[in-house]
Amino acid sequence: MLPKLLVTLCIVALVQSSSAEQSSIPAYDRGEFGRWINSDRDCLNTRHELLAALSTGALLYSDNGCRVLRGRWIDPYTDTVFMDSSDLDVDHLVPLLWAWQRGAWSWTREHRVAFANDPINLIAVDDSTNRSKGARGPLDWLPPNHAYQCQYVLRFWRVSRIYNLEFATDEQMALAKQREKICG
User: Fold this and answer.
1) Which of 18-32, 48-62, 161-175 has the lowest mean pLDDT?
2) Taking CA 91 as the corner, what is the angle to CA 138 and CA 74, rounded to the nearest 5 degrees?
3) Contact call for residues 96 and 33 (beta carbons, < 8 A)
4) Pairing relation of β-strands 88-92 and 122-126?
5) Maximum CA extent, the chain
6) Cβ–Cβ under 8 Å, residues 141 and 133
7) How many Cβ atoms are within 10 Å of 84's Cβ, its own excluded?
8) Which has the closest alpha carbon to 85: 57, 124, 39, 53?
9) Can you tell me the mean pLDDT for 82-89?
10) CA–CA distance, 12 with 78 (Å, rounded to integer)
11) Whole-number Å distance between alpha carbons of 160 and 145
12) Residue 162: which pLDDT band, with cuts at 50, 70 and 90?
């Protein structure tokens, strides 16, 4: 009887410890990641710099030259071609909330702003597909374009590793299994 009681107490302690760790994470605030920045001071912010870099066709800029209005983009999530930038979102491949829950809450504001504007974590995609993804990671959401799923999972993993995001052991194992299944 005593060993069963000890096991039960240990389980209760682990659950309480895990709950305490979760509750020590401050509430998510999107503002902690700042806005799109204009690091080279050319009037194009991160969104428009990325749209210009990813376009496979001629670009049309706003009259003041600070916004990309038209181009040609192939959305890897849906394998659809877009010509109008207003139909696209610049997605954070590793969502900001997802990163917050895995350690970004402890970063400096400058580090969070850099993460939110880092081109390795950004991709131009169909706006409605991006919104359906929300803040989910690859265990809960994969691009509908099956041909891109392996690259998506590998890139997600790479960005997470570069930024030293923290994974629970079971989550890390599940992500490794998923990579093997999708990319194997």
Assistant:
1) 18-32
2) 95
3) yes
4) antiparallel
5) 79
6) yes
7) 11
8) 124
9) 98
10) 45
11) 22
12) very high
- Look-up of token digits 């790479």: 158
Is the pLDDT assigned to residue 10 strictly greater than 70? no
Higher pLDDT, 23 or 181: 181
The pLDDT value given to residue 33: 98
CA distance linking residue 96 with residue 91, whole number of Å: 10
Structure tokens at 37: 């920045």
Query: Tokens 């299944």, residue?
Result: 181
- Are the C-beta atoms of 37 and 46 separated by less than 8 Å? yes
CA distance 89 to 110: 23
- Do residues 158 and 93 make contact, with C-beta atoms less than 8 angstroms apart? no
Three-class secondary structure assignment of the chain: CHHHHHHHHHHHHHHHHHHHHHHCCCCCCHHHHCCCCCCCCCCCCHHHHHHHHHCCCCCEECCCCCCEEEEEEEECCCCEEEEEHHHEEEEECCCHHHHHHCCHHHCCHHHHHHHHCCHHHEEEEEHHHHHHHCCCCCCCCCCCCHHHHHHHHHHHHHHHHHCCCCCCHHHHHHHHHHHHHHHC
